[in-house]
Amino acid sequence: MTVLDERPNRRTQPQDGHGIAVPTDDLLDGVTPAAARSVATALLGEVADVYRRVVEEDVTVTPAQRARVRVAGEAFAEAGGAPGVAADLLGRFAAQVADSVARHRPDRVVPVVQAAHLLVQDLLAGIARPVPAAPARDARGALVRRLVRQERLDPAELAGLEDAYFVVAARFPQPVPSDRLAAVLDEHHEDGVLGAPAGDGVVVLVPRRLERRIAPLLAALTGRFGQEPWTTTVPAGRATLAAGCKEASDILALAAATGRPAGPYRLDDVLLEFAVLRDPVTSARLRALIAPLAGNEILYGTLEALIHADFNRTVAARGLFIHRSTLDYRIRRIEEVTGQNPLTGRGAYVLAAAMVVHAVSRS
Fold this sequence. Notes:
The chain has helices at about 5, 25, 35-55, 65-80, 85-105, 110-125, 135-150, 155-160, 180-185, 215-225, 240-255, 270-280, 280-295, 295-310, 315-320, 325-340, 345-360; strands spanning about 165-170, 195-200, 200-205, 230-235. By secondary structure, it is an alpha+beta fold. It has 3 domains: about 5-125, no CATH class; about 135-260, Alpha-Beta Plaits (2-Layer Sandwich), CATH 3.30.70; about 280-360, Arc Repressor Mutant, subunit A (Orthogonal Bundle), CATH 1.10.10.2840. The protein has a 4-stranded antiparallel beta sheet, sandwiched between helices. α3 (about 35-55) packs antiparallel against α6, α11 (about 240-255) packs across α17 and α15 crosses α16 (about 325-340). The longest helix has 22 residues, at about 35-55.
């Protein structure tokens, strides 16, 4: 997240009588489009901090400060601001600051003017930073769906993508119409963001430079449909996007399959199940073990209840509305069918892992 995002719409105030403040309304009148104004306000705050240090601490502009202004320039360009508008904005602000400093600290006027030249250069350097062209609107969803299906992209397609992304995925407990999901993605689209409905939710590729878009997107998905989704965010490079999509999908599938409540998850939250799922030999053996049980609705539901009750028979029987002796009979049948006793540590672990693999493969 950039410095600008951490301090949105901030208005700085004069300090120590030097008059270095940001008269936002006066300076922003000519800034277009409207989306660029909040970014411009934050930009002026960054620049005011630089001038204040130059005047009050008798120092020059630091490399870190210059880097922050370059980031500000990039953000201004992303919001649709034109280079000429940004340069004019900083020029008018520099003139106001120089006039005020001439009255209060005339010995610092020259350093302020020198700083102003550097800041305009850094701003324009940030605005001019090349950003790969985003795929056309109709192609965004198709590309994401191909990555979700683990299809390989050709070199030309890869070359058109940015270097680093976050794979943001959401999965809903109850189905949501894909056209409503697509509408949310359209509302939160920004050039470079790629997204599409997928399965019971969405997958969105957010460039690392647009990390600030993740929080509002997740907030919209969580609050729009009357149900909270399982969500995850996985970093991925351009060449590993398919793997990132697979990891995100597996995390959500495991969170849902293991009965975890909806909400945000990371790989660490389902690490053990993830390791089992990613081992094809182990997964195949577990699916074969649970397959006979999957065809028996009563025994399968009983094992689910035991797992959700952490293998506490009293709690499981209460949840199933059956007597303990009935539950004990079903447990013996589960052991006969699977060869694993769910009341032993090893049996409980193996059966729980088998249920997860089965649930994920079924979904």
